[in-house]
Specification:
The complex is a heterodimer of chains A (about 450) and B (about 240).
Chain A lengths: L1 H14 L1 H29 L10 E6 L22 H7 L7 E13 L8 E8 L2 H5 L4 E4 L4 H5 L4 E4 L1 H8 L8 E4 L2 E9 L22 E4 L3 H4 L18 H5 L7 E5 L3 H20 L9 E5 H7 L5 H30 L2 H9 L4 H38 L11 H27 L11
Parallel strand pairs in A: 3-8, 5-7
Antiparallel strand pairs in A: 1-9, 1-10, 2-3, 2-6, 2-9, 4-7, 5-8, 6-7
Chain B lengths: L1 E11 L4 E12 L4 E5 L6 H8 L7 E6 L2 E2 L5 H10 L1 E4 L11 H10 L5 H14 L15 H15 L3 E5 L7 H16 L3 E5 L3 H4 L4 E6 L2 E5 L14 H5 L1
Chain lengths: ~450, ~240
């Protein structure tokens, strides 16, 4: 019977192409808008490290001004990064299975003069654990070893973009790159690593470009590196020396710890609190004890990884789809009621009320599916444009994945049903004898 | 076949009650061909709608083919309309954008028959009314008489026990009307019960019995004549084919 209903519905839709276009167009518009914004929200909400994100924790300590919270209006707020000295202390916990402080700095890259002129580049400093904690895939080579972390050795990891720029995409393992005043040996080239959100550093834009060069964290002190990302402090360094900066209350690095079990998480939180209590005895951390050890999903929620505009637009877009559907109720009602003579004949010939109802629901669903398909295509185009202009790291990620396509199909069916339920019910409620005599 | 006792049907609006049928009683035996006559507004079509389960009634009893159909659900009534009753209307009531084949197919679709069974029935019934060659035509491409023959083919394909015809020749000229009446005669001769509402005395005399309706009541009941038809329930297709 479904096949027959589809056949009847197609005939009915072909009967009045202008009305049909109007119906399909309205659903297409609703689906395009709703799918686009839901896809954007979905992109930002998606777990960047499925299966692992719950074990990776971001550490924050409240070392702020005793007189004023980090955000003055919010007494529970605390700095979003940690100081160098606290990061070094946290490294000594021995509880985390993997851990790293990390930040970005800026250095000049000196490529082969035949390739390009020197250019300034954001460089991320981290321990080798960074790569294994965040499941960074490698195209060539791998992360540097622990010895390179400790010494530190002059080694770097490039991403594909930088490897393409400096070495034309060839296997560059063992080649050297001059950064600042030193030469560094390439030990790894990152493969296709494109999380939608820059989850390892959400202190700036979550869609900011990932760094293209990574080097051992322990170069911080010998090279006297300073951050090119956010740095913040309630009081400045006590002196002008670099060591004063490192020992200051200025927060400028992110700290990550991998804590795979609940026991480790509890022990780590205890360790952090104890550390701060010890520091209080030294005159630091004069605010009430307040530290946060937060998993990636919780951090994404807390830091609003989904831009508020996207969040509110996704809700508005759903309402827009509902309005589009409800606007069609009148059109469909008129269309269906004009068909009462045919419905009366079908009823006389043995169609039950339910069969007539489903026949018309199928027609509405065909409108929904056609509108949904067009809306989906429009949404793909719009997302491509949004990706191009608004997502520096991976514009190609701003797209509809399989899950979103399924959601969109579901929304199309719901929209068709919403528009057609009342008209279908009205037309099937007509007494069968009503129009048989007067046709 | 059809037994109505004291049927009452009232149409109500906010201000008016119209008694369309009042103590309407009628018995139609299997294999009969009955003509129902009466002036406009006398209740003929209401009777036909009630008889065809297209409309409900307020009181009385109605037995169709031995089954009390006074209080049935919509789906049960639809099932009986689909399997036991065939309708022929004055205005043919073909679906304009379906071709002849598909029009005849409509009741069979709701019966859930297989495609091959439906095709056999449709081809056979179109053969019976002499329109096999027009199966791909749309109703608008046929004359009135041909359209009524398609409507009859639609009935024949369902092989019902009872045909209810509402002024089947009302929109046709006399030649075509005669053709349609000949066809109905042949169908009745094959054993199918026919109840026909008509204004036309020429058509009415073709029936075995004439009933006159006035103000929602049967006022003049002919005694049934002896039918020369095949035994009741022999089926239309078997005799006509």
């Amino acid at each position: 019977m479904l096949g027959y209903n589809v056949k009847i519905a197609l005939k009915s839709l072909r009967r009045n192409p202008i009305l049909t276009s109007l119906l399909i167009g309205a659903i297409a518009l609703g689906i395009c808008v709703s799918t686009t914004f839901i896809a954007l929200r979905h992109l930002f909400e998606k777990d960047p490290l499925p299966g692992k994100s719950q074990t990776l924790f971001y550490v924050r300590l409240d070392n702020w001004d005793p007189q004023r919270a980090y955000v003055a209006e919010d007494p529970k707020s605390l700095p979003s990064q940690v100081t160098y000295r606290d990061a070094m202390a946290l490294m000594k916990s021995g509880i985390a299975t993997q851990q790293t402080p990390t930040y970005k700095t800026r250095l000049f890259v000196h490529p082969d003069p035949k390739v390009s002129r020197p250019f300034s580049e954001n460089i991320r400093l981290a321990y080798r654990d960074f790569f294994t904690m965040f499941n960074v895939p490698f195209q060539y080579g791998g992360a540097w070893d622990k010895a390179a972390d400790a010494k530190p050795e002059q080694v770097i990891v490039l991403d594909q973009t930088m490897n393409q720029k400096l070495f034309g995409g060839a296997n560059s393992i063992g080649r050297t790159v001059r950064l600042g005043e030193r030469n560094y040996k390439v030990v790894g080239v990152i493969g296709d690593w494109r999380p939608a959100v820059k989850f390892y550093d959400m202190t700036q834009s979550v869609t900011a470009e990932f760094e293209h060069v990574f080097m051992p964290f322990n170069f911080t002190r010998p090279l006297e590196l300073t951050p090119s990302g956010n740095s913040d402090g309630w009081k400045g360094p006590d002196g002008d020396s670099y060591d004063s900066f490192l020992n200051s209350e200025v927060v400028w690095m992110q700290f990550w710890a991998e804590l795979p079990t609940a026991e480790k998480q509890a022990a780590y939180r205890q360790y952090v609190d104890n550390y701060v209590r010890d520091q209080k005895k030294l005159g630091r951390f004069q605010r009430p004890l307040h530290n946060e050890v937060t998993s990636i999903p919780d951090l994404m929620k807390e830091l609003n990884a989904v831009p508020p505009a996207v969040k509110s637009m996704s809700i508005v877009s759903m309402l827009f789809l509902v309005v589009c559907s409800l606007n069609l109720v009148g059109l469909l009602l008129g269309k269906f009621l004009a068909r009462i003579p045919e419905v009366s004949v079908r009823r006389a010939l043995g169609a039950s009320r339910l069969q007539v109802f489903w026949q018309h629901v199928v027609e509405c669903e065909l409108v929904g599916i056609a509108g949904g398909a067009i809306g989906l295509l429009l949404s793909m185009g719009i997302l491509r444009l949004i990706g191009k202009f608004a997502h520096q790291q991976a514009p190609e990620l701003v797209r509809l994945d399989g899950e979103m396509v399924l959601i969109s199909i579901f929304l199309s069916l719901v929209a068709g049903l919403l528009a057609g339920l009342y008209p279908s019910w009205r037309v099937c409620s007509v007494a069968p004898a009503m129009q048989l005599k007067v046709q | 076949m059809l037994e109505m006792h004291n049927i009452r049907k009232i149409y109500r609006t906010v201000t008016i009650e119209t008694h369309a049928l009042e103590d309407f009683s009628l018995v139609v035996n299997s294999g009969e061909f009955v003509a129902v006559m009466g002036p406009s507004g006398s209740g003929k079509t209401t009777f036909l709608n009630v008889a065809g389960l297209l409309d409900t009634f307020d009181s009385g009893t109605y037995t169709l083919d031995g089954k009390d159909v006074s209080r049935l659900s919509d789906s049960e009534m639809s099932r009986i309309r689909n399997r036991a009753i065939g309708f022929v209307f004055q205005s043919f009531n073909l679906i304009p954008d379906l071709n002849i084949f598909d029009n005849v197919d409509v009741p069979l679709r709701y019966r859930g028959l297989s495609a091959s069974d439906r095709k056999d029935r449709i081809e056979r019934s179109l053969d019976m009314v002499g329109l096999s060659s027009r199966r791909k035509h749309l109703p608008s491409q046929l004359s009135g008489g041909q359209q009524q023959r398609v409507a009859i083919a639609r009935v024949l394909a369902g092989d019902p026990k009872l045909i209810l015809a509402d002024e089947p020749t009302g929109n046709l000229d006399s030649l075509m009307a005669r053709e349609i009446m000949d066809l109905l005669d042949r169908i009745n001769a094959a054993g199918t019960t026919i109840v026909m509402v008509t204004h036309s005395p020429e058509c009415a005399v073709r029936a075995q019995r004439q009933i006159h309706v006035l103000d929602g009541k049967v006022v003049d009941l002919d005694m049934p004549r002896i039918s020369l038809a095949a035994p009741a329930g022999a089926g239309i297709a078997s005799t006509l084919g």
